[in-house]
Structure to design on (123 residues):
């Protein structure tokens, strides 16, 4: 059973503009991961603010950091949404990247926050 996923964000305004307003997540709490724990777990000797958000049964830990770590491979998070077209329009209105791939039955749709975290949207 999935407990949570963790993502890195580099801009705090992504929390309000992308995760809250567009994707519909609510902030649960904030805490600071101290330098020693950050170093022991992730190999980054730096304290970091962590914001816990939730929508329905999905919890995400957002690590707010200025450390830029390149994204690799096929990493993405897939969300089931009821209002996919509205979310796509909101992303476009706020200059978040939208990737739509036409297909016969239903287009594939992915959106990115400003850090580059990739979300697939399924209706």
């Amino acid at each position: 059973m999935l407990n949570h996923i963790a993502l890195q964000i580099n801009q705090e305004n992504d929390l309000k503009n992308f995760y809250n307003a567009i994707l519909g997540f609510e902030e649960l709490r904030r805490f600071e991961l101290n330098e020693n724990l950050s170093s022991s777990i992730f190999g980054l000797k730096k304290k970091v603010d962590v914001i816990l958000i939730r929508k329905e049964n999905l919890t995400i830990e957002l690590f707010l950091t200025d450390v830029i770590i390149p994204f690799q491979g096929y990493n993405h998070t897939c969300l089931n949404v009821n209002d996919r077209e509205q979310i796509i329009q909101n992303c476009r209105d706020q200059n978040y990247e939208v990737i739509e791939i036409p297909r016969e039955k239903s287009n594939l749709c992915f959106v990115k926050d400003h850090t580059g975290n990739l979300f697939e949207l399924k209706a």
User: Anything to note?
Assistant: The chain has one domain: 5-66+75-122. The first strand starts at residue 5 and ends at 9.
